[in-house]
User: Which sequence fits this backbone?
């Protein structure tokens, strides 16, 4: 049975600062396909990776506006054209009566779109990833920090990448194999 192809190399660090310095050095060396994993957010590492804020807020705002417009439009159309009932002498298109449902539908659409947008932008759900099988990677959620260099990067040469990562003083460097 043959081994799966290499997916990349993973360097393990015990603290956030050395990992952040490693990310900066990797970017300065020209690496473009790299990822950092940590048990808590490290804004400096995200900045060094060039990660920008996801537009989840804009997605939620747009979906909320569309949901509100549809709810208000539907309530107006039903009240004025499909089922016109004069209640207490109010006009058929009394918009204040439509506001509670319009508001609730807008919130519902915004929340649903924020969830779906966040999952899509993060590439989730991803139930299996070769990085999950890197040596010691289970500690990424507890107390370890990892820098991953992908084999898809144009600079990737297994030996040169291993030397580069070893020069960053990690706890260990391990090879990650694809599926």
Assistant:
């Amino acid at each position: 049975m043959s081994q799966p192809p290499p997916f990349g190399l993973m360097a393990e660090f015990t603290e956030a600062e050395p990992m952040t310095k490693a990310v900066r050095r990797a970017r300065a060396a020209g690496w473009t396909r790299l990822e950092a994993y940590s048990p808590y957010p490290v804004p400096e590492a995200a900045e060094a990776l060039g990660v920008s804020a996801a537009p989840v807020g804009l997605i939620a705002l747009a979906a909320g506006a569309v949901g509100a417009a549809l709810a208000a439009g539907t309530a107006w159309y039903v009240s004025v054209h499909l089922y016109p009932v004069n209640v207490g002498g109010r006009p058929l298109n009394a918009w204040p009566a439509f506001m509670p449902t319009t508001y609730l539908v807008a919130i519902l659409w915004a929340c649903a779109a924020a969830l779906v947008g966040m999952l899509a932008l993060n590439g989730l759900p991803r139930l299996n990833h070769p990085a999950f099988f890197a040596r010691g990677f289970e500690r990424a959620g507890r107390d370890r920090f990892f820098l991953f260099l992908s084999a898809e990067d144009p600079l990737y040469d297994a030996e040169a990448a291993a030397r580069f990562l070893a020069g960053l003083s990690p706890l260990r460097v391990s090879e990650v194999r694809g599926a």
